[in-house]
Specification:
CATH architecture of the largest domain: Alpha-beta prism
Distance between the termini: 6 Å
Bound molecules: ligand EPZ
Number of domains: 2
Number of helices: 14
Strand order of the largest sheet: 22-23-1-24
Number of strands: 24
Helix content: 25-40%
Length: 429
């Protein structure tokens, strides 16, 4: 298994190109199930989850083509995928595939909407929490689907098609909003999705569906109104930049000091989190082509924050913020409100010398003089990148095991950081 080795203490200076967002690319790829015509996606990141989803979609009958390199294209430019679901040959998403990537559960709605039937393995729990799917079922049932559970599988059917209805999501859920939206676009009549997630990735999916011929109003708000259509058609869409990658690199620069231009990053996708970093003492300047992030001397101020659905502080940046606050002058209070078990990085950060007290859903992080390199283990995607951030500032060598977690969501992370002066490499075994 590969490991990442970091020798900490170098400041970061240079340019980091921000990739297309993993959490937008995945539902966009799944949306290709909704039409027999070709969906062309640009700016698709090179990630293990994207490769795995291509295989899962292939199993349903989708032809996935990665368009070859074009003249003038840079290594940092995203890929172009062409996805064609001319015929869906299999409406089953098997356990061994869904268990490896939760987002693949979202094939449920488009298969049901297009074929009237779907059999999808229950995703089960994962490292960060139990992660139920009851809201997905509530939404599909409201649209007229029958849902049964058998042998760990969800059997969904709507032989006469789905019908528009009011879908009231009891809790804000990104995945349930994706599923409700993908079901509603081909349902008969009008659907109103209330308490919809407003995450930029939901907006990206809604915009792409509109480009495919869907009729959606209220994009970017908590109320989505969908007028069902008979069929969707071909479209071309560019995946929006990854706000979590943006926030992660901004915090890496804040941790080490230096100045980095995050090329392609957008302030509006991350506003509250960036305002918080500014309050902590990080310089962030918005430009038309990206964000300039700098910290040159001066201690960081501690913060008090809780994770919230968009536009609040994202749970996907909580681990990175905890790592950063290990360098603050004082105690930060960071509360996790989205997932019940998303603190596994805490004990690993402690191995580097972090002082973190966990009380229920809240971490109290007291800044320390310095962190010291150690051997640590990645437990999930965002937890693993928090160890990278801490390792960049720690004295001596940090060795991170189980880096396959990182490869799921961060494109060429060693390369991007090395180009800015970090001493980081991958040890293959
Ligand atoms: C998406 O997961 C993201 N995944 C997660 O990113 C992200 O942390 C999360 O949204 C919150 O922003 C992808 O986009 C692939 P939710 P999702 O449904 O959709 C509860 C990463 O690191 N809930 O918005 O699965 C749930 O337990 C990943 O890239 C129910 O109770 O999250 C949680 O408490 C990790 N019943 C809350 O809602 C349901 O049916 C929000 O979860 C569904 C969710």
């Amino acid at each position: 298994m590969d490991r990442i080795r970091i020798v900490g203490g170098e400041r970061l200076n240079g340019i980091i190109p921000i990739s297309g967002a993993k959490n937008a690319a995945l539902p966009l790829m799944i949306a290709s199930l909704l039409t027999e015509e070709t969906l062309t996606l640009h700016n698709v990141p090179r990630l293990a989850d994207v490769t795995l989803l291509s295989r899962i979609l292939g199993n349903h009958g989708i032809d996935v083509t990665v368009v070859g390199k074009k003249a003038g294209q840079r290594k940092s430019d995203g890929q172009t995928f062409k996805l064609t679901a001319a015929q869906i040959v299999d409406t089953t998403a098997p356990y061994d595939m869904v268990a490896r990537m939760r987002a693949s559960f979202w094939v449920l709605a488009p298969l049901l909407a297009r074929c009237g039937v779907a059999k999808v393995s229950l995703p089960g729990g994962c490292a960060i929490g139990t992660r139920p799917v009851d809201l997905h079922f509530d939404a599909l049932k409201a649209l007229g689907a029958t849902i049964d559970l058998e042998g760990g599988y969800v059997l969904a059917s709507a032989p006469k098609g789905l019908s528009g209805a009011r879908v009231e999501l009891a809790k804000v859920s990104v995945g349930a909003t994706h599923n409700a939206l993908m079901a509603a676009v081909l349902a008969r009549g009008e659907t109103l999705i209330a308490n919809a997630a407003r995450e930029p990735e939901v907006m990206d999916l809604a915009n792409c569906l509109s480009e495919m011929g869907a009729k959606i109003e209220g994009i970017g708000t908590a109320t989505l109104q969908v007028q069902g259509v008979d069929a969707l058609h071909a479209a071309e869409h560019a995946v929006l930049p990854d706000r979590i990658e943006t926030g992660t690199y901004a915090m890496a620069v804040a941790m080490t000091g230096g100045e980095v231009f995050l090329e392609g990053a957008r302030f509006d996708l991350l506003e509250e989190a960036l305002v918080l970093l500014r309050k902590a003492g990080v310089e962030i300047e918005e430009t038309p082509t990206g964000l300039r992030v700098a910290r040159n001397g001066g201690g960081l101020e501690p913060v008090t924050v809780e994770t919230q659905p968009f536009p609040g502080f994202p749970t996907d940046l909580q681990a990175q913020l905890i790592a950063l606050m290990c360098k603050a002058c004082g105690t930060s209070t960071i509360r996790e409100t989205i997932f019940e078990n998303r603190f596994m990085h805490v004990q690993e950060l402690a191995r580097l010398g972090a002082r973190i007290d966990l009380k229920g859903d809240t971490a109290f992080v007291t800044g320390v003089e310095g962190l010291t390199g150690a051997q640590v283990m990645a437990t999930d995607l965002r937890a693993s990148v928090s160890l990278v951030i801490a390792g960049l500032a720690a004295q001596g060598e940090t060795l991170i095991g189980r880096v396959y977690h990182l490869d799921r969501g961060f494109e060429r992370i060693e390369d991007k950081l090395r180009r800015c002066g970090a001493q980081i490499d991958r040890l293959s075994s």
